[in-house]
Amino acid sequence: MDWGTDLWDQNDVIDKHTQAGLDLVERYIKFVKERTEIEQSYAKQLRGLSRKYAKRGGKDEQDCRFSNHAAMQEILNELNDYAGQRELIAETMMTSICVDLTKFLQDIKQDRKGHLSDAKKAQQNLESSFKHLESTKKRFAKEWAEAEKATQQAEKIENDTNATKIDVDKAKQHAHGRVHLAEECRSDYAAYLQKYNKEQKYFYYTEIPQIFNKLQELDERRIGRLAEGYCQFSELEKKVQPIIAKCLDGISAAGTKVDGKQDSLLLVEQHKSGFERPSDVDFEDYTQGIKAASSDSSLNPPKVRTKLWPFSRKHKTTHAEKRVPPPAEDFSHLPPEQRKKKLQAKIDDVSKKLHMTQETSEALEKMKGVYEQNADLGNPSILEPQIAETAQNIGYLRGELTKYETWLSEAVGGEECANAINNNNTNHSQNTVVMSDNHQNIYTEFDDDFDDLGQCTAMYTFQGDSEGTISVTDGEVLTIMEEDKGDGWMRVLRANGEEGFIPSSYVKVAS
Question: Is 504 left (phi over 0), alpha (psi -120 to 50) or beta?
């Protein structure tokens, strides 16, 4: 069944039906646009929420060493990645559904308009031909009536006894002319009637059915494309569901990483002072005599313990108390345990810098040797200032290292200090920095980050089709050139030198 055969006389119905179909496509496009706006707003609010509760600053970074604080931070990071996926859904829907459907709708509107115009033109041509047929028919009827009238008049004159032969001949001649003219009109009418019937048959059996069938094909194509848009509405979101699931799995994994016992041990390790608990208070017997008491008071004044109870209430700091002298360079103002940790961290820091400076010095010496062997590559004298400066820095850092090792030996004392110093000396001779396991695990914030922005690993394959983006594959190691500024994108550098933007949620930043 088709429209041209069964709906040949329902032009208005077809017109309204096809227009309603176009209106439905426009309505669906608006619906998807509003959906994308909701997704974008939702993602924006999620990013804002993540930034609001993210920890910043020195104190917050200290707290993030504890597993429960770090887990909260990981949850916020995963939530930020989740927001990125919602933005990706909105962007893909806008491109794949709204933009493509809008272009398709414009094309199909133009085709429909052309088909309806052809049908209207064919209808007008048939009506014009029918009017010409009616005009020919009326002329034939008029001329035939005149011919009959003239014939009757000629018969009347012929039967009149008073009429002359001339009058009779004249009347017959007039009647014959009118009959001949009526016959010509009759022939014209018959010929045009045949032509009109042929045109009408072509109109109803060929022309209009073809136009209506084209409109049917157009409408079915519209329905098929709209059905694809319906499916895309869910398929586009299904594509990112694995990534969203990984974000949610990351949130669950962050919760399982929380270790209360480890956090408690970490707090002890960070803040253990090393002081001994106060001893018992001695009894002072005032019954032994005033003189002995005064003598004891002058020679052995009673010890004043500055801190008897760890939960003493904090008092308001006065203006005089605010003027605290700067902390000592050897950290002697800190408790024993905290002083040892600070000194060890400082030794590790200086050792690392010394190692890097020594590597720089070796590189400069090699470059100088190359320049000396081949003068075309460069002038070796221009490296002298850098070599001298590097040697001066090495001497300074070695002095700093010796100074802090001496202070650490005072703080630690005995065999433990000797082992620590021997380890550091071994590290210097091998130009390798080896850190104590405990300090490496707990005090990593003292390590300097010599990579500007670090590296990251692609967790998923991304096809960079738009301008400014690049394609990456799952597991590829990338260099971060520009961090995510809150828009869900970051600029990276591939190993082959290609540089561009990729979604931040597609990579895992190296810690």
Answer: alpha
CB 67 within 8 A of CB 257: yes
**pLDDT one-digit tens code per residue, 43-70:** 999 999 999 998 766 565 667 788 898 8
Q: What percent of the chain has pLDDT over 90?
A: 39
8 A C-beta contact, residue 144 and residue 188:
no
Task: Please name which of 150, 146, 135, 147 lies closest in space to residue 188, comparing C-alpha atoms.
Answer: 135
How many Cα atoms sit within 13 Å of 215 on the Cβ side?
31
Query: SS3 for 134-149, per residue?
Result: HHHHHHHHHHHHHHHH
Instruction: State how far Cα 265 lies from the chain centre.
Output: 41
pLDDT of residue 64: 77
What is the three-class DSSP state of 120? helix
The C-alpha atoms of residue 460 and residue 246 are separated, in whole angstroms, by 11
Cα–Cα distance list, 116 to 4, 108, 353, 400 (Å): 13, 12, 82, 91
Residue 158, burial from CB neighbour count under 10 angstroms (0-12, 13-18, 19+): middle
Task: Enter the DSSP assignment of 445.
Answer: G
Question: What is the pTM for the complete model shown?
Answer: 0.55
* Of 133-137, 311-315, 480-484, minimum mean pLDDT range: 311-315
Q: How many residues does the chain have?
A: 511
Listing DSSP states for 30-93 in one string gives HHHHHHHHHHHHHHHHHHHHHHHH---SHHHHHHTTSHHHHHHHHHHHHHHHHHHHHHHHHHHH
Tokens of 16: 């309204």
Instruction: Give helix then strand counts, H and E, for the chain.
Output: 14, 5
Buried b (16+ CB within 10 A) or exposed e, 411-434: bbeeeebeebbeebeebeeeeebe
Got the DSSP string for 282-313? PP--GGG-HHHHHHHHHHSPPPPPS-S-TTPP
Tokens 């001497």 locate to 395
Interatomic CA distance for residues 271 and 292, integer angstroms: 43
List, for residues 107-122, the tens digit of each pLDDT value.
Answer: 999 999 999 999 999 9
Number of other CB atoms surrounding residue 372 within 10 Å: 14
Instruction: State the average pLDDT over residues 310-314.
Output: 49
Tokens 């020594």 belong to which residue?
358
How far, CA to CA in Å, does 173 sit from each of 36, 150, 167, 168, 250? 90, 9, 10, 9, 113
Strands 499-503 and 477-482: unpaired
